[in-house]
Amino acid sequence: MIEEQALDPARHDRKGFSCGVTELDEYLQRFAIQQSKKGVSVVRVLIDTNLPAEILGYYSLSAAQIDVNALTEADQKQLPRYPVPCFRIGRLACSISHQGRGIGKLLIGCAVTRCLEARKQVAAYALIVDAKDVRAKAFYKHYGFKTCLDSPMTLYLALGVDK
To answer: Annotated catalytic sites, by residue?
Structure first.
């Protein structure tokens, strides 16, 4: 069974993780724990409960804000004219051995679910991400993220409106 967990260096094999992008591998192996301890980001991993040390994929979340003028005109109409609070996916990666199996989709779903839960306590309008390349941008657009008007590699997913 696939399960999401907080990254734990005592349980999860960070050194054994490779997604094929050196920067993303190095982040998980060298910086993720430090940044979590300092309150810079929270790192979550997907594991198979039958092999709990193996990291199938991971993502990091942190607080952020976005200038309202970066959003689509339709979204701007609903918001005040100052930067709005958001969550940010800082990193998202899937192990090479599990690419093409829907892990990326699961990671996005877990991140959105976590943001919606946090939003019950701390307001945030959207989940934003800075795509590393056009392939990553296409991945996020496939899941409903919109391109920011002022930065073509920054995308956002509005988290909905409470009723």
So the answer is: 140
Strands 151-158 and 84-94: unpaired
Which residues, including other chains, have CB under 8 Å from residue 22's CB and lie 6 or more apart?
none
Q: Count Cβ atoms below 10 Å from residue 20 Cβ, excluding itself.
A: 11
What domains can be seen in the chain, in order of their start residue?
Answer: 2-158 (3.40.630.30)
Q: Contact, 106 vs 140, CB < 8 A?
A: no
Q: Which pLDDT tens digit goes with each residue over 88-135? A: 999 999 999 999 999 999 999 999 999 999 999 999 999 999 999 999
Residues contacting 43, CB < 8 A, separation 6+: 6, 7, 28, 32, 33, 35, 36, 58, 59, 60, 91
